[in-house]
Write a structure and sequence with these properties.
about 375 residues, nine-stranded mixed sheet, binds iron/sulfur cluster, Alpha-Beta Plaits, alpha/beta, globular, 14 helices, Rossmann fold, 2 domains
């Protein structure tokens, strides 16, 4: 049985700190010993202000770092951003201000070690700091995600894959959303963080996980030892069947999910949370699956009024499916593997995922097929 704790909270440090201390005491504070080297892994995706709800809030990270110090441990905070310099992320994200006068080390992952995460992926380069730490604390943000539906505890560990190897793994998984979910699960279990806490105080709904999403105040922190349990509990909180989350479905297929999840604390169902429009759009005979994925799945589109032609998306795209001239960008949808990295990193919120017309029709057909089968 896995326990998940929910705690109502806000970003006032005087009240937030004791609440996080209380959660950590219950979840696994005893694992942090004197002189333990504790790696805190927040979501530091790109430069974004705290009110955008893209990064783990700096005060959540500060309270956890303070807890580690209080236990006599040695905290260091690290991630491998997708975009922007680490200094800019710490400044824009409010970390510099929050940690003023605090002697805690921040580090961008650079070096890596090869880790065999299992079939079919084999060896993956994961940040070496993860394996040098005595305890890893996973501090995720509650956000929507165009490809994975939500990015929660399990997916946050993908940040431990260093730098440009992230888009490379997107490329290797191709258009297969379930394969990418399986990769995320394998990475999560290879790292096996001791504690997972998800910051859902100010969450991101709609077209997350980047600037196209819409912040929404939920006022909740969720935490536990097992990130799959935490993620399942958050799905229930948001009124989503956990099996619809690709990472949970992949973890179940791999036999890596504890069947019983027990919630405690301030669990209160969130109404009308807005998820990104997505769906596997794959059904019926196997021989048609590849075609369906390629032509029917939602595609990235640009809002030209918001695009500043900054170049981040075309530089990052793992398959170079974005072209541009002096006035606009264009997508090559034959090349595009629908990883949605471009949406995630666009600093101006100019990209979102949109269903194709055949995709809409296929969705209807899929629903009819499923009704017919049941
Ligand atoms: S879509 Fe976004 S990332 Fe791409 S060029 Fe335009 S503003 Fe930059
Ligand atoms: S265009 Fe965007 S969604 Fe398509 S492969 Fe490139 S980064 Fe991924």
């Amino acid at each position: 049985m896995s326990e998940v704790i929910f705690t109502n909270a806000d970003y006032h440090y005087e009240t937030l700190k004791p609440k996080l201390f209380g959660m950590l005491d219950v979840i696994g504070g005893h694992l942090i010993k004197k002189e333990s080297r504790v790696l805190i892994k927040p979501n530091l995706l790109l430069p974004a202000k705290p009110e955008k709800a893209i990064l783990t809030h700096p005060l959540v990270v500060k309270a956890v770092a303070e807890y580690v110090l209080w236990k006599g441990g040695r905290p260091h905070i690290a991630d491998s951003p997708a975009l922007g310099t680490f200094t800019k992320i710490l400044r824009d994200g409010g970390y510099k201000t929050a940690f003023k006068g605090f002697d805690v080390e921040f580090k961008m992952f650079t070096g890596s070690v090869k880790v065999d995460v299992g079939k079919p992926f084999g060896q993956i380069d994961i940040a070496k700091e993860v394996f040098e730490a005595d305890v890893v604390i996973n501090l995720a943000k509650l956000k929507t995600h165009a490809q994975m539906l939500l990015t929660l505890g399990v997916k946050n560990m993908f940040g431990c894959v260093v730098g440009f190897q992230k888009p490379e793994w997107h490329l290797r998984c191709g258009i297969d959303m379930n394969m990418f979910a399986r990769l995320l699960v394998r990475i999560y279990y290879a790292i096996n963080p001791a504690i997972t806490i998800v910051d859902g105080i100010l969450a991101l709904q709609g077209n997350g996980p980047g600037n196209s999403g819409t912040p929404r105040h939920l006022g909740i922190l969720a935490g536990g030892r097992d990130a799959t349990a935490v993620d399942m509990a958050i799905c229930s909180l948001l009124g989503l069947d956990p099996d619809k989350l690709p990472t949970i479905s992949a973890a179940k297929k791999l036999g890596m999910v504890n069947a019983t999840v027990f919630y405690s604390g301030d669990f209160q169902r969130v109404e009308n949370f807005i998820f990104p429009t997505m769906g596997s759009l794959v059904f019926g005979p196997r021989m048609f699956h590849r075609f369906m994925r390629k032509h029917m799945i939602q595609r990235p589109v640009v809002d030209n009024r918001r695009c500043k032609l900054c170049g981040e998306c075309w530089q990052f795209c793992p398959v170079k499916a974005i072209d541009r001239d002096d006035t606009r960008i264009d997508f090559d949808y034959n090349r595009c593997i629908r990883c949605y990295c471009c949406i995630e990193i666009c600093p101006h919120g100019a990209l979102h995922a949109a269903k194709t017309v055949p995709g809409r029709l296929l969705h209807k057909a899929k629903n009819t097929w499923e009704r017919f089968r049941s």
